[in-house]
Design a protein that fits this description.
80 residues; disordered N terminus; 5 helices; mainly alpha
Length: 80
């Protein structure tokens, strides 16, 4: 089992908007539901998620959310 130090940097250093999206994904929201909730386009949500997938090397939503929840940096976001 990975430790917090083993997590991909892309999940450890997230923007406030990426954290907003990850929190809603963690609650089971679809991309469309996240977009409506945050007042952005579905494309914007996908762009944020795709960027997180690319920098983290994680290939699914469950893994991305799990890594984010374990991240020691969670809650200390960068500006959007």
């Amino acid at each position: 089992m990975p430790t917090r130090g083993d997590l991909p940097l892309g999940v450890q250093h997230t923007t406030r908007r990426q954290e907003d999206i990850l929190a809603l994904v963690a609650c089971g929201y679809s991309d469309k539901q996240v977009a409506v909730r945050l007042g952005v386009s579905r494309h914007t949500v996908r762009t944020h998620l795709d960027r997180l997938f690319a920098v983290s090397g994680i290939h699914n939503r469950t893994g991305l959310v799990a890594a984010w929840l374990l991240s020691p940096e969670r809650g200390t976001t960068s500006p959007s």
